[in-house]
Amino acid sequence: MRRVLLLLAVFAGVPTPAAAQLPPAFANWAQSAPIVAGAPDAPRLTAVPVTGADATAARDWRDLRVIDREGREVPFVLRARLGGTSAEWRPARVLNPAVVPGQYTEALLDTGHSGRVHNAVRLDIISPTDFLTWVEIAISDDARGWRVARARAPIYSLPQEGLGSTTDVTYPDSTARFLRLRLLDGRGYTVQHASVALQTVTVAEFVPAGLPLRQLAGEARRTTWRSADNGPRIPIGQVCFETSQAEFNRAVSIEHSENGDDWARLANGEIHRMVEAGVPRTSLCTTFSEARAGSWRVTVYNRNDPPIADLTPTLYTTPRRVVFRQEPGEQYRLLFGNARAAAPQYEMSRLVDAKALDAATPATLGASEPNAGYVDPAPWTERHPSVLWVALIAALAALGALAIRALRTARPSTDEPGDTAAR
């Protein structure tokens, strides 16, 4: 039957995907792709991005394998620059809170005598309503002479809009003991608690995921974009926006769904473009814990402001690279598409320095090819559920027939004694 379909496709002029026969040891891998790398004169580390395999490979990449031309498994390290933020928060005493009506709410923070470096503050603010405002941060060693460290940092708390709160603010590294906070919109707030930390940020590597987003119509007080349903489950970790508008400050939410109907909030954030104390500040990206999903939804909350006319979001993913030791004159393939494979365990990750992995020679991944000798690793019962249903129905029918027969056999006679003779 397979040959007939191939012949029909050839005669109809329909292109068919090339198929590669994998070794029997890898018969349960559905796909593979050639690794396109230059010919080295000596062994070297080579890195190939797995873009193209990410939608088919297992969610945690445990089914990736590299083999050489002889079908031998080649050790590798799966490398990704995910980035992240680390901070050890410690409490700061809130001193002398005050409200200057129509101007600002002020609170002083005492970070203690330790002299430890800090560059971030987290505020616990009580407000009777949602708010989206700005905070000025000044620093001092003696609580008398102040130097402004951050003139206009955005913070918000929007639970009534369906969003959470972002009340963390960063500023240049400082050892100053005292911080002065001023919430600048003239409303009255209560700064109940505060913490400070030295926040360390590792920048992640991101590339466009290639998942188009279309804008939805008829939204009030918000602008929403959505991807197509049942799209490729590429791991997404960031959304970035482009616009020509000079000034704005909007809250953002990112949601995902497996079926396009039931949505889960993954992250909240905010984007802005403003001038702070004469210095332009721009933040157009929201980064979050990486996730896979069939559908994505991005919302910008305009509240009572007009929508940003040319705002365009893009989803981003962190690329993974398979780093392996390439031998001169050898050829390699990347295998994927086996949901039941266990994660490989190679000692290479403990033997090769991280800097050497990042400096590996780049290669590319060729077009994906189906395994001509593919054998589904799922148990026979999962691969043939219809047979089980037929067997179950037959068994129920047999049991029903036996039950009816047993009832007929056990039914007592209704004839009275002497009836037979009378008849």
Summarize the SSE layout with pairings.
Layout: H1 2-12, E1 31-36, E2 44-49, E3 65-68, E4 76-79, E5 84-86, E6 90-100, E7 104-110, E8 118-126, E9 131-140, E10 147-157, E11 165-166, E12 168-174, E13 178-183, E14 190-197, E15 200-202, E16 207-208, E17 214-215, E18 222-226, E19 236-242, E20 248-257, E21 264-276, E22 279-283, E23 285-291, E24 295-301, E25 312-317, E26 321-326, E27 332-336, H2 348-351, H3 354-358, E28 361-362, E29 364-365, E30 369-370, H4 380-383, H5 385-410, H6 419-422
Parallel strand pairs: 2-28
Antiparallel strand pairs: 1-27, 1-29, 1-30, 2-26, 3-27, 4-26, 5-15, 6-7, 6-14, 7-13, 8-12, 8-14, 9-10, 9-13, 10-11, 16-25, 17-18, 18-24, 19-23, 19-25, 20-21, 20-24, 21-22
Considering the chains and any ligands shown, give keywords for the structure.
Jelly Rolls, 3 domains, mainly beta, extended, single chain, 30 strands
